């Protein structure tokens, strides 16, 4: 269910027409928005059941050239030979700063979670079937860093639209055996393949002992069994923030979720200890929609 905000291509002249096409399709600006919105998280009848946001005005030229700058910054070689080289590449280009996140990304080999026939270590999203993708490594790094403080040992995490299981496995290693991690994916075939992927990864012991689970379900409804959650990651764009996910976020917890239709923002949602909610925009992104199973498979 994942899709990344930025496709990274070779800087060769052959790639330039595709670069222009991509820039016409979507852009990514890594600077956070200064706009915040706070509201009550109460589920009472007096509280709003919808989350609405005012998108900040953007200067098209500024965003366009920011996108070019970012794409030049993240040009990747056509072939990176190993997971370790990929992590080093992300560090060298400033996409990965946290030592802990780097260790986890090096431990969880992306090559185990990318369908055969793809180049697993290219910094680009990849098709995983069923109108779904696995996000680009730099977006995985960004989301892990945004959630790092809420993925401490013993904490609980939810991965909505868990896809091939990559981030679910990373979360599990970060919270450890005393924590709990649930992945929710509404395509049964992806759930089955993600479990096999995790079984072949460093997170296999956590899956075996039950502190890491992956279930078939509608991620918009969350997964209450392991809740409330310190960290929630959503790998597809919702028109607004689903109320069940807000309800399952623990006071002091943080959620990272893309919100919007064509114009989308990666939002960081924090639930304060008093239950109030604050939201800020981290970056502009382009994700596949968070929808029903039938909606996702339409035309597939």
Report the order of strands and helices: HEHHHEEHEHEHHEEHEEEH
Number of domains: 1
Strand order, biggest sheet? 1-10-9-8-7-4-5-6
CATH topology: Rossmann fold
Helix-strand makeup class: alpha/beta
Summarize the helices and strands and which ones pair or pack.
Layout: H1 16-25, E1 36-40, H2 60-73, H3 83-92, H4 99-107, E2 126-129, E3 132-134, H5 137-147, E4 156-160, H6 166-175, E5 180-185, H7 188-199, H8 204-209, E6 212-216, E7 229-234, H9 243-248, E8 249-260, E9 264-271, E10 276-285, H10 293-297
GO molecular function, one term: protein-L-isoaspartate (D-aspartate) O-methyltransferase activity
Family: Belongs to the methyltransferase superfamily. L-isoaspartyl/D-aspartyl protein methyltransferase family.
Keywords: Methyltransferase, S-adenosyl-L-methionine, Transferase
Provide tags for this entry:
300 residues; alpha/beta; Rossmann fold; eight-stranded mixed β-sheet; two-stranded antiparallel sheet; 10 helices; globular; SAM-dependent_MTases_sf
